[in-house]
Amino acid sequence: MRSFLVFSFLSICGFHGLKTFGSLPYVNCFSDEEAASKKYDIAILGAPFDTAVTGRPGARYGPTGVRVGSQRLAGFDFYTDEDALHDWATIVDCGDATLTWLDNTVAFKQLDKAHRVISGRPTANDTVAAVPRILMLGGDHSTTLSALRSTYRRWGQVSVIHFDSHIDTWNPDVLGGDISRYAGINHGTFLHIAHEEGLIRNTSIHAGLRAPINKRSDRANDKRCGFTVITARDIDKHGIDWIISTIKRRVGESRVYISVDIDVLDPAFAPGTGTSEPGGWSTRELLTIIDGLRGLSVVGADVVEVSPAYDNNGETTVLAAAQVGLSLLSLMVAKPVRD
Ligand SMILES: *[C@@H]1O[C@H](CO)[C@@H](O)[C@H](O)[C@H]1NC(C)=O
Ligand SMILES: *[C@@H]1O[C@H](CO)[C@@H](O)[C@H](O)[C@H]1NC(C)=O
Ligand SMILES: [Mn+2]
Hints:
Layout: H1 2-12, H2 32-37, E1 42-47, H3 62-69, E2 91-96, H4 104-119, E3 133-138, H5 143-155, E4 159-163, H6 190-196, E5 204-209, H7 217-224, E6 227-231, H8 234-238, H9 240-251, E7 255-261, H10 283-291, E8 297-304, H11 316-334
Parallel strand pairs: 1-2, 1-3, 3-8, 4-5, 4-7, 5-6, 7-8
The structure holds 2-acetamido-2-deoxy-beta-D-glucopyranose (NAG) (2 copies) and manganese (II) ion.
Organism: Pseudoneurospora amorphoporcata
Cofactor: Mn(2+)
GO biological process, one term: putrescine biosynthetic process from arginine, via agmatine
């Protein structure tokens, strides 16, 4: 009896075993045999890659950092009274994709394949979900391109809700591509490329923007790529409810991919990232906005650009990123999406 109590206590708190996101079970989703017997509806996938950055490197340690920050995520949410990690959906942690740090072209192919394989498995609860959805832990922001290629394959074009301080729709001619084609795919151009590849809808939206653009024409190009803009300071002018309703109106009934670059937060709340921009949202503001998106058909999501080497002793950034990850999972659990 006593050992049972000890065991059951340990199984709801995070300080045991190897570190997975929220102490979810680890499944080797890359193994056909294992995935056939351990089915899932939602998968956590780490993308430890940071060789396409324009600022400080280090986001390859992001997935590990976010898992460390997630150790105490457990139980019923104070606001929704729901335990998203243990609801109808079987959620597992697939660990990290194997990605080379020596050749980005090869790494993107590896990550494309990881997304394709993991989203191609049968679901656990096939009365509710036909295709497994993925929450990716980055990695620099270019990893989102592979995720969008995968959601396009499974669900068609998606509206992207892009939380970031930067636009990330730069034309490769403006950012990197004047050096080589290889250099043109980076963490500031992946949304431009996603548009060129026809992966995203023209009902996409940025939220939290504030970083300077390189050229005035970047704005027109951003619009051409399918985006409108909510700036960081719009929160002071219009408030949180306006931000939530503006995002919802923009994406309408379409399927949605939510990408959260942790640098959308003010550096005071998330110092552990590569391209910090002062004047961002607080962690509480961001969580309230994401939680306000309940009801949208979220078919994929990520938290990226977490760079634990620049975090502080209190682990502010990885704690925030883990909480954001839980909010994103909660959106997926709240709204099952059939094929
Ligand atoms: C699937 O989800 C439905 C809806 O929440 C639930 O009633 C059912 O028990 C689940 N089935 C399995 C096998 O988990
Ligand atoms: C998106 O493109 C379609 C045509 O493909 C067009 O009818 C529609 O007005 C566009 N919507 C927006 C919000 O730009
Ligand atoms: Mn970004």
